[in-house]
């Protein structure tokens, strides 16, 4: 199944890449990165969804649990920013996680308007179990690559995802008539 998804994503990426000439007028040697990454990302999210469902989590709830591991206590506003969510959107997610006993929310002693967040032991256990199951599924996908390519792929993703933000890409210089 993962092999079919990978082939489908690669084929879709190649079809969507288009034929934008290079400076020398030749067709590019590879599809655009977004044309390859977006279908792959969709396939990975689809592969993770049954695991999240089995653990009673939404993608946003899982993102919260993962991020709280990075910083044990943070404000709701900072958490929302770090996971790319609107701060009003995650309030319901936090309410659900707190009701389930997965996180603690308490007023910040320095600013009573702000809430500090932390994982409970149950939250840590659920996060770890979910992440382990997801990574087992990812290993099935990664097994489609030779070992050296697998490690290089994961290292490249770790490097790019660790950037504080993607650098601005320069606009292409218009061709002179």
Textual characterization of the structure:
With 177 residues, this protein is mainly alpha-helical. It has helices spanning 2-16, 33-54, 59-70, 76-83, 90-99, 121-142, 147-161; strands spanning 74-75, 103-108, 111-119. Helix 3 (59-70) crosses helix 6 (121-142).
Strand content: 5-15%
pLDDT average, as an integer? 83
Number of strands: 3
| Termini gap | 49 Å
Q: What is the count of DSSP helices, taking H or I runs of 4+ residues? A: 7
Strands ordered across the widest β-sheet: 1-3-2
What are the low-pLDDT stretches, counting only 5+ consecutive residues below 50? 12-20
Which features would summarize this protein structure in a list?
177 residues; mainly alpha; three-stranded antiparallel β-sheet; 7 helices; 3 strands; globular
Topology diagram in text:
Elements lengths: L1 H15 L16 H22 L4 H12 L3 E2 H8 L6 H10 L3 E6 L2 E9 L1 H22 L4 H15 L16
Helix pairs in contact: 1-2, 2-6, 3-4, 3-6
Summarize the structure.
With 177 residues, this protein is mostly helical.
């Amino acid at each position: 199944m993962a092999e079919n998804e990978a082939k489908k994503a690669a084929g879709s990426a190649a079809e969507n890449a288009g034929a934008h000439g290079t400076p020398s007028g030749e067709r590019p040697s590879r599809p655009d990165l977004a044309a390859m990454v977006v279908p792959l990302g969709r396939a990975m999210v689809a592969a993770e969804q049954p695991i999240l469902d089995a653990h009673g989590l939404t993608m946003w709830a899982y993102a919260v649990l993962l991020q709280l591991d990075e910083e044990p206590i943070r404000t709701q506003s900072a958490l929302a920013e770090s996971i790319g969510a609107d701060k009003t959107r995650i309030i319901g997610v936090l309410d659900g996680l707190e009701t389930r006993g997965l996180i603690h929310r308490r007023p910040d002693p320095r600013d009573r308007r702000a809430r500090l967040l932390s994982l409970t032991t149950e939250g840590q256990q659920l996060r770890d179990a979910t992440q382990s199951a997801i990574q087992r599924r990812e290993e099935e996908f990664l097994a489609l690559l030779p070992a050296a390519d697998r490690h290089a792929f994961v290292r490249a993703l770790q490097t790019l995802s660790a950037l504080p933000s993607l650098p601005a890409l320069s606009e292409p210089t218009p061709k002179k008539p």
